[in-house]
Design a protein that fits this description.
Largest sheet: none
Number of domains: 2
Strand content: under 5%
Bound molecules: zinc ion
Shape: globular
Amino acid sequence: MNIVNITIFIAIFFIGASVGSFLNVVILRNKKNEKVIGKNNRSYCPSCHGEIRFFDLIPIFSYIFLKGRCRYCRYKIPISYFLIEIITGTIFLFIFLYNYYVTQLDSNLFIITLFHYTIASFAIIIFLYDLWYGEILDKFSITLLIIVLLFEFIFFRGNIFEILISTFIGFAFFGIQFFISKGKWIGGGDLRLGAIMGAILGYNIFIALFLSYFIASMYAMPAIYKKYVKKEKVNSEIPFGPFLILGTFITIYLGDKILEFLL
Ligand SMILES: [Zn+2]
């Protein structure tokens, strides 16, 4: 671990944090139906509408220097901004370290890492949008599906037949539940997410589905306990998308290890 490496790692973390800051803007502006990029579309404070200058847009640092408040009106900036920057930076650094040290990619390190960054960015948007607004927007899910399939057809490493089958499996797995429950158990967005999982993971999609349901049931335990044991009223509707994304993320980087362990 030398000084050059550490500098590169810090730089990658901050690129990730900047991307996280941008993803946050994409989510909020999509919710409000505003354009993400445009001439008169500078960032502004949602409270006093004061324009946020470039020196207040430095990821992580600006939030710390401004102590989490607007420079003009002292409006409290949600801590989620800060957390998303840190988490995205961490994910970007993790992906790079994984591809460099674990997979030991050489000539295709750059293109594969870029591919993983693209998947991660879309996944973060879909994760948070579903978590906050209970909805998976087609423009994010279908765009990601097309990008993943195109990338695999162009740069593919193995069996395209497997990818097409697993994409269909992911789609059908949720399609059947959607059909049986007439859309009550899961939303239409989960069908597209299922297809994306298959396209990314191949037959490892089964590991991801297992993990997603496992994590979701762990998460739901306290609510189930309150509802059925203590007979309290609970809001039992939780979006499933975030769990699918968590399961997929773990499977991309640990799927083969989990499979080895199970067999
Ligand atoms: Zn303000």
